[in-house]
Every structure is written in C-alpha cells, then in structure tokens.
Amino acid sequence: MNGDAPGGVKPLTAYYGLAVLLALVLLAYVDRQVITLAAAPMAQDLRLTDTELGLVQGLAFSIFTLLATYPVAWTADRFDRRWVLAGCLLLWSAGTAACAFVGSFEQLFLAAIAIAAGEAAVTPIALAAVPDLFAGPRRVTAFLIFYAASTMGGSLAWLLGGSAFAAIGSAETQLPQLLSSTGHWRLVFLIVAAPAPLLLLALCILPSRAGAADNRTGQNAPIVPYLKTHGTTLALLLGGVGMIGFTLGAMLAWAPLAMARRFGLAPDMLGLGMGVTMAAGTVAGLLLAGVMIRRWEARLGSIAGVRLIGLAALLVAPCLPLLMMAGDVGVIFAIIGIQMIAGTIIGATIPNLLQAIAPATLRSRIIAIYTMSYVCMNGLGALVAGIVSDSLGAGPAGILQALSLIGLAGWLGGAALLRFVEPGFARTAAGFEAVAPGR
Predict the structure, then answer these.
(1) Are residues 12 and 100 located together in one domain of the fold?
(2) Do the domain assignments include residue 217?
(3) For position 291, what pLDDT does the model report?
(4) Residue 178: what pLDDT?
C-alpha cells in the first residue's frame, strides 16, 4: 500500500470511488441547474409570476437545504455513508422526475423541496468519504481533483442541461405523438433524472471504507464559548461573504431568464453560454487566487485572504450598472464571467480563512455555519430579485434593473464588511496561531 491507501483500499479502487463521488456531485448540479434553464418555458406553461419563480429557485432551495444539511450530515457520520448518499440520490432524483408532471406552482415548489433536501449534504458527505479512500500524498491529490472537478461541475451542468434541451429539439420529429405534444422542458427533467439508477448501482459497490462513519475528535466540544469570544469576527466575515452570495444567487437565477425573455435566447444556447462563461470565470479565478494569495501573504500576513476577496468584490461593483443598458447577451455574459472570477476567488480562499480563526475541535461546525449562511443568502438573493423585478414591472428590463441594484448593494456592502473585519480577524488568527503554531 505504500502508506497511501487506508484500510486496504487499492489505488485503482480508490480512484473508482472518487469518480463515483464526483459523478454524484455532478448529477446534483445538473438536476439543480435544469430548473433555471427551464424557467422561461416552465413559467409560461404554468403561468408563474416572477415572485413564484423566485420562491422556487430561491426559497425552496435555500430554506430546505438549510434545514436538511446538518441532520443528513449527522446521519452520515453515524451510519454507512454509501446508504445515506443512496437515499439522498433517490430523493432528489424523484423530485427532478416529478418536475416533469407538475401542473401548478404548489406542485413545482414541493418537487423543488425534494431536490433541495436530497442534495443538501451531498458535497460534505462526499468530502468526508475521500479520507477513507486515500492517505498521504494521494489524499492531497484527491482533494485537489475533487475541488477542481466540483467547481467546474457547475459549468458542466449548464452545458449538459443545455445539451438535453438541444437533443429534445432536434429529435422532436422522431418522437412519438404523446411525447412530441409534451412540453420540451418536461422531457428534459425526465432525461436528467434517468442516470439515477445507474449511479445508485455504482454507489452500492463502492468499497466499504468509503462508507465508514467518522468519529471526529472534539465533536462534543461546546461552540458557545467560542462564539462569545470570536462571534463578532466570524459574523462580519460571514456577513461580507454572505452579501456577495446574495448577489451571486440573484444573478445566476435571473440573468439566464432575462436573456431568454429579452433576446429570445433558446435553452440550449443559454446552457452553452452559461457553461462556457462559468468555466472561464472559474479557471481565471483559481489562477488569480493562487498567484495573488502567495504574493500578499508575505506582505499582509493572515489578512491577505480577507483583503483579496474584499478587493475582488470592490472591483466587480462598477460593472453592474452596465446591466441596465445591455444591448446584447455578450455584455450580460461578460458581467456574469467577471462575477464568477470574483466568486471563485472567494470560494477558493474562504476555507483557509475559516481554518485560521477556528480551533480544530470546532472547525467542521464553523464551516457548516458558513455553508448554511451562504446558502441562505444565496437563495434569498434569488427571491428578492424576483420581488424587485415584479415591483418594477418593466418585463425583462426590470429583471436586469433589479440585478443591477441588488448587485451594487451586495458587492459594495460585502467589500465594506470585509474591510471592517480585518483588524479583528488578524487578532483572532494570531491568537490561534500562538496556541497551535503552523496550523
């Protein structure tokens, strides 16, 4: 084993397990994003208002992801993770398939709840299974592969979702009468739910070590004393990042719909454009984060990451007014790409920042608090954008105006909070470094 595979797991088997876990995360992304791609035709057929769409895309996912994440993760820490993941897969795939048969807002909202609850803790559980498959240098490599693949998974999800719409459109004349008379968006939901049985089988034959339950050191350590001492620093950091998540949630939920309504962009082209834009923004963000953080740490120390994401937020804000005067989809895609660069910088930097201000015995719970707060703000942004768009009453132009206003508030407010947290962050990080040097 060369010390690289725990529990007797052979390298080939370990990488098979990693591939299955990544496939699971990717399918979760696809099933989530197809609701956004189908928003325009779905809203027309079901006669949904923008507020109702916001409730489906925002509140249903944020609230029920928030409610389900901790209980599902708690279960996975105590029972075989393979079966917990299998249950999650069955729940969200059933919700995805159910979207093909909905006839009202209420039914769609319930289906979205099933998707959200099933997907809630998939990524944390998958990450927890990686150390059961890899050890030593291979574990580091596995985590890098997982991070890169999962961040690119969102882009690939757009491409796959758009491809499903394109496939249905091109095959329309060959479809049976019953299917050809059915809305294309309904068939797409069935297509993206179809891989679930195959993936379920792949999950069941994962090596047993990938299903081991953790007994994490310090899981019973109280969090209240930490929050009393460092709660302000944590709240400001999460508040700053949360405001950015608020505007990103609004942008990713509503910009595709605005392009579909204002410029007549078809779902397949939307998927292609969003996929390419997000992939390019992710790669650029990862490269910038890697280069800048190394340079700034020598000069700024522990606050280098805080300063970096604050500056990224500040530089994005001036682009937002351009949404109000966008004359073609290229401008909107460019603004989405710029925000993806900044969002990726934040996503790549925040785990290290949280580690710097949290003891090892509380780290998983601090990260869980961050995850839940970010998801909540992300979904709230989608809901608020829908409400503002309805209140403006200007059709597709109203959506872009709402995104511009929300974006300015979110990026500028986030930058301000991140700048304000720097002194407290430096003190907290220095205190933990003194207790445990080289953490």
Answers:
(1) yes
(2) no
(3) 79
(4) 46
- Final residue in a domain of this structure, among 166, 182, 210: 210
pTM of this structure = 0.64
Residue 215, in any domain of the structure = no
Residue 325 reports pLDDT greater than 70: yes
CB atoms within 10 A of CB 281: 22
How much of the chain is in helix, strand and coil states, percent to nearest 5? Answer: 85, 0, 15
160 and 233 share a domain? no
How far is CA 324 from its chain centroid?
26
Query: Is-contact 250 379, C-beta < 8 A?
Result: no
Please name the residue ranges forming H helices in 181-223: 184-193, 196-204
Mean pLDDT lowest for which of 92-106, 146-160, 165-179, 334-348? 165-179
- Residue 416 sits in a domain whose CATH number is 1.20.1250.20
* Domains in the chain, number: 2
Same domain as 265, residue 296: yes
Domain that residue 40 falls in: 1-210
User: H-type helices in 303-328, by residue range?
Assistant: 304-316
Two tokens, residue 317: 């804000």
Q: Collect contacts of 263-270 with beta carbons under 8 A, ≥24 apart.
A: 263/328, 263/329, 265/329, 266/165, 266/169, 267/37, 267/38, 267/40, 267/41, 267/161, 267/162, 267/165, 267/184, 267/185, 267/188, 268/162, 268/163, 268/165, 268/166, 268/169, 269/162, 270/37, 270/158, 270/162
Distance CA(412)–CA(76), nearest Å, equals 38
